[in-house]
Amino acid sequence: MQAQLSESTIKLPDSINGWYQPDELILHTPETLYDYINGGAELYISYGMKEVISQLFIHQNLEIRVEIFDMGSSKNAFGVFSHTRTEDENEYGQGSQYFTGALIFWKGKYFISIVSNDENELIKRTIHKMAFALDEKIQETGLLPEIIRFLPEHGLQKDGYCYFHHYIWLNAFYYIANDNFLKINAQSDAILAKYGSDDDRHYLLVVQYCSEEEAFQAGKQFFTKYLTDQATDGVEKLEDGSWAGGKVEGSFFIAVFNGPSSKIVNKLLNSVISKIQIEN
Questions:
Q1: Considering only CA atoms, which of 155, 150, 142 is closest in space to residue 206?
Q2: Label partner for 19 (CA 20 to 30 A): which of 91, 103, 168, 180?
Q3: CA 107, 113, 118, 123 torsion: positive or negative?
């Protein structure tokens, strides 16, 4: 569909570094996104996407497509970025990463994707120029999701966490469950983080609910469906030899998966609880 842009939409340059726009700019909303990126739309929709504008730039037989996703809030823009990036290089916006022939970054409520159909020095220079131009045009910045501050720093893998509020991303790093037994919803804030080295990789989940009752029910479901009545103080050794545990603190549910020992699981759980108590 031809774009009928909102006032907040960032205007793209007509041409850059010898690349020009062969077609009109396209706008998609959540209702039409599946037609545009079949198989990838669910990621953006689950983070509350409002609209995305898409513009193709060409140079000879080369193509670069620029997409600007209005995610409605900075925490949603960061959420998509945290789900997509493997390393935060911080060159553009409030966090960025360059892949082969592609660059992503987030700033304010926007998530930006710049992708080419090839990779060479001209493409790389042009992608960086586009990223720089868009970074300059986006004046607003946004705050990181507050739940990040509850992650203990010791043992946390650099950039090794994913923020979300839709249960389908519960297994972003580590398989936990097929169903939404923790009742994570659009009003919840959740973060899944990697801890330890490759040899003793374990995972921390922190979910903040709207009420203490919701957190209590999440804990109840965890102790019923994931652990057994053999758990001691919310921590148990599983059949595969790993340790898992969970605790409830106010409106928070905290869990550790694939722990190498009960000591490490308890230490991580208690570290999060201490941060929650200090911050709140």
A1: 150
A2: 91
A3: negative
Enter the DSSP assignment of 154. T
Do 159 and 275 lie in one domain? The reply is yes
Give me the domain span that covers residue 205. 146-279
Residue 228's Cβ-count burial label (10 Å; 0-12, 13-18, 19+) is exposed
Dump pLDDT digits (tens) for 25-64: 889 999 999 988 877 899 999 999 999 999 999 999 999 9
Share in percent of the chain as helix, strand, coil (round to 5) = 30, 30, 40
Q: How many structural domains comprise the chain?
A: 2
What is the tens place of the pLDDT at every residue in 168-227?
999 989 999 999 999 999 999 999 999 999 999 999 999 999 999 999 999 999 999 898
- Under a CB-based contact definition with an 8 Å cutoff, are residues 77 and 106 in contact? yes
CA 81 remoteness from chain centre: 5
